Amino acid sequence: MPNYVIGLLGLLVLVILIFQGVHIGIAMVLVGFVGFWIMRGFTQALAQLINTPFATVNSESLSVIPLFTLMGVVCAYGGISQDLYAACYTFVSRLRGGLAIATEIACALFGAICGSATATTASMGKICLPEMDKYKYKRTLTCGSISAGGTLGILIPPSVGFMMYAVNAEIGVGTMFIAGIIPGIVLCLCYSLVVYAVCLIDPNAGPKGPKFTAKEKIKASLGVLPVVVLFAMVLGGILFGWCSASEGASVGAAGAFVFMLLKGNFTFKNVVASLRETIETTAMIFLIMIGAGILSNFFSSSGLPQMLTRSVAAAQVNRVWILIACLGIFGILGCFVDSMPLIVLLTPIFLPIMDLLGYDRIWFGVLMVMLMQLGLLTPPVGMCCYVMAGVAKDTPLSTIFRGTAPFLIGITVAIAIVIAFPILSTWLPSFMQYGG
């Protein structure tokens, strides 16, 4: 039996295990180990099982994961959500759907220090939901806007999705972070336009809010200052070459603790909770990365990526259709499989094809993360919707998914814009002093 057939069978078994509920990291380790055993013997398979975990966790590039995770978690426990939302709302309150538009902007700002879609949804949901209920917003718009806004947490840097893609694509983490800034702004604008369109069609969905004076706006804007400072310190340092991504993550984590202290939330309970959540998240990500390393080595040894690349080279098909097919596969699987491990799984398979077709790796990484966001809003996985259901306990999950439907149009438009104009994701990284 040819090795690439073993690789295809391994991929099929992996999908079956995932659908059976086996943890993605364990499933990848199991398939990679057994695959090596079949192709190279037990000794080499055991060597992979021993060496790959050490090589993975010993990588300096992965140090950004616990540090940026810590930064986001500490900021969440530091109580920044309410200040962000209040500041954004004072400027757009007189628009129909102003509270929902403020939610999108506040989620984008919170995502700039968080990096997690579910954490952004949970943190902002607790603040935004009562306010929109107060002004009698329809629950479909309320829950839809918060769930959609939460996905900005993995596109606006720092982003766990970009971290995982960068490591697998052998691109600087800092480079991917900077690449996500403009697409993140584009998506935030698309979400805001969706809110405005929904309120034009149904004015009762999002009534106008109160009017604020210039003095109130200035006072509320001070709440955004810590985010701006932290964002400028971390991403500004990476962009202009003052620090690497790892160094920027260290600065960000330290700055987050300073912010927590200044806000008066530096308590033993909050610190312990922040550290526990950081450890749990980091352990989960590292298990996925270890599994991905073993599985990637198995696929490479089987010749599966090379076989697929040769097949694409021999096919008389326009490269745009091949790109759309790859993105379509990722988008469809993202509806059924958690998108974060999916990006680790598919990156080694798709990247050789993208290289053959002459597509930019940075641009393709941005598209993959944007498709991750699509998976976070679509059933049956739709993690942001499930998190929102946990916040809005009296709202049926079907209502939440119905509320996110218009925002799927918004993210589709944003993806189409980034596909049509790759410079949106490659322009800022071109100014970087080094890849970070």
Q: Give the number of helices.
A: 22
**What oligomeric arrangement do these chains adopt?**
single chain
The rounded Rg comes to 22 Å
Low-confidence stretches: none
The helix/strand series, from N terminus to C terminus, equals HHHHHHHHHHHHHHHHHHHHHH
Mean pLDDT: 86
What overall geometry do the principal axes of the alpha carbons give? globular
The end-to-end distance, rounded to whole angstroms, is 43 Å
Largest sheet: none
Helix-residue proportion: over 70%
Count of distinct structural domains? 1
Structural class: mainly alpha
Q: Indicate the proportion of strand residues.
A: under 5%
Number of strands: 0
In words, what does this structure look like?
This protein is an all-alpha fold and 436 residues long. It has one domain (3-431). 78% of the residues lie in helices and 0% in strands. The protein starts with a helix and ends in a 10-residue tail after the last helix. The mean pLDDT is 86.
